[in-house]
């Protein structure tokens, strides 16, 4: 019976056919060097194998459903995202220029020597992987990339590859992940790209041969990848070392990541204690990592545990860049990242405000606002929030709380005072409105106006900070108030 007529689930049938047709083999003059001496055995002829391919296809459809595009009930959104205006000319110099000039070691030294907190933006990968099942298309990422290149040039890195992106691009988006990397690299030449490498699992869900992992990292580096964050979900050191060696051999920046769990600040938890993480960090530093990362994939880091862990790592490795990753699942992500920065972390992971929070990363705008004017200043400017459900970082700037402008505006309308609102003192959504707060003249008198009856529910009194005097109260009814003024409105809205 011929091998070609058998319906076998095997990959070595063409090889066996070459062996059986070899004259040396047929003459029974073979020894243990037979395969090494006959390299033509590996000249394999591809087989059609139509029946087996058809069975594979039917089984795939039965298990995973059809892969052909089908209509869905959801209607396309009627809202077109506003793309910020592009900037002409070459983008500013970024950390990738440092990497290309000085190599991974020089890059690590520059990160450690940088004054202020550095940020990695996860919007291109982990943010939409956490919130949208990694379904953001290359087409949409390309639209915003020129703006990112010109306005976020001082990012530590832009995470845009690895993790589930490779799998989802092919299985669900019908895209080529390599083409995505190439096109984004052309649009963002100045910011380092970062990917998540699952150690010996590369970007898949099983462990692959060593040479496959090495080749994968080599091709990724050739197509524009810069920083390889290598981790193993169980902190299994041999798997991590393989990924680190592959990334290093490709010429990339090796960022070894320790998966965090438990609570190092709780003395009752002995399994994943501070000593556990310190010992693991020792092994990774000895293995030659360029950057040391704490990967809090479950969002378990709290401020007290952040200070203890990062502070201990900084004391032991004063020259090693420390990078911290978390998810805002518990809502404490911003506080934890600020604590990490104060304890000595060089880089923290954030996402743009509209894609931050919940299972995504902490808000970039919140981190920028909280560090502004301090020694940890990120050097970035807050931008208006694009969605109502995103954090309101502009709440830090105005002297009226975010909840106050709307009732104030409705209360000021019947009094005829909407035309004297102070837009610059209000959160951005209300800036197009006229001034909400009455402004008295030098003698403390308000402009003349009718005095309608003011109900008990109207916002009668509001704060107004005068640059030349202390905080004073002004009555919407038209008279200045002293410290004995009623406080029911302040209690309700401030």
UniProtKB/TrEMBL annotation:
Record-level GO cellular component terms: cytoplasm
Keyword annotations: Pyruvate
The organism's place on the tree of life at top rank: Eukaryota
GO molecular function: pyruvate carboxylase activity
CDD domains per record: DRE_TIM_PC_TC_5S
A Pfam family it matches: HMGL-like
Name listed for the protein in its UniProt record: Pyruvate carboxylase, mitochondrial
Gene it is expressed from: PC_2
């Amino acid at each position: 019976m011929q091998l070609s007529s058998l319906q076998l689930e095997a990959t070595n049938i063409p090889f066996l056919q070459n062996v059986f047709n070899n004259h040396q083999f047929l003459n029974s003059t073979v020894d243990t060097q037979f395969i090494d001496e006959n390299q033509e055995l590996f000249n394999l002829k591809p087989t059609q194998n139509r029946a087996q391919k058809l069975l594979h296809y039917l089984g795939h459809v039965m298990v995973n459903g059809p892969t052909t595009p089908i209509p869905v009930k959801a209607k396309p959104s009627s809202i077109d995202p506003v793309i910020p205006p592009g900037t002409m000319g070459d983008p500013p110099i970024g950390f990738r220029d440092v990497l290309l000039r000085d190599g991974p070691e020089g890059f690590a030294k520059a990160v450690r020597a940088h004054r202020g907190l550095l940020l990695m933006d996860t919007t291109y990968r982990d943010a939409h992987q956490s919130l949208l099942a990694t379904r953001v298309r290359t087409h949409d990422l390309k639209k915003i990339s020129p703006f990112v290149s010109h306005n976020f040039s001082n990012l530590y890195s832009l995470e845009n590859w690895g993790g589930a992106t490779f799998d989802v691009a092919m299985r669900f988006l019908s895209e080529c992940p390599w083409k995505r990397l190439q096109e984004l690299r052309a649009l963002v030449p100045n910011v380092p790209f970062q990917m998540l490498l699952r150690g010996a699992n590369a970007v898949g869900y099983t462990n692959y041969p060593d040479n496959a992992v090495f080749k994968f990292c080599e091709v990724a580096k050739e197509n524009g990848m810069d920083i390889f964050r290598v981790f193993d979900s169980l902190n299994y050191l041999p798997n991590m070392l393989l990924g680190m060696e592959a990334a290093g051999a490709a010429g990339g920046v090796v960022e070894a990541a320790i998966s965090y769990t438990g609570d190092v600040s709780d003395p009752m938890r002995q399994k994943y204690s501070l000593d556990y993480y310190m010992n693991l960090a020792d092994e990774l530093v000895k293995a030659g990592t360029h950057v040391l990362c704490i990967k809090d994939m479950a969002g378990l880091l709290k401020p007290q545990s952040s200070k203890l862990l990062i502070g201990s790592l900084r004391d032991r490795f004063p020259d090693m860049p420390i990078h911290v990753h978390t998810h805002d699942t518990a809502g404490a992500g911003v506080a934890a990242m600020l604590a990490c920065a104060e304890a000595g972390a060089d880089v923290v992971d954030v996402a743009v405000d509209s894609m931050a929070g919940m299972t995504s990363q902490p808000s970039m705008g919140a981190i920028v606002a909280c560090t502004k004017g301090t020694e940890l200043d990120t050097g970035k400017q807050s931008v208006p929030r694009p969605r109502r459900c995103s954090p309101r970082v502009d709440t830090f700037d105005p002297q009226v709380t975010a909840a106050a402008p709307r009732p104030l505006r409705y209360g000021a309308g019947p009094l005829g005072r909407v035309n004297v609102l102070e837009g610059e003192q209000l959160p951005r959504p209300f800036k197009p409105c006229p001034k909400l707060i009455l402004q008295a003249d030098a003698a403390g008198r308000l402009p003349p106006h009718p005095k309608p009856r003011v109900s008990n529910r109207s916002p009668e009194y509001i704060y107004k900070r005068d640059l030349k005097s202390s905080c004073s109260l002004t009555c919407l009814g038209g008279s200045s108030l002293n410290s004995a003024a009623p406080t029911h409105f302040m209690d309700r809205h401030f």
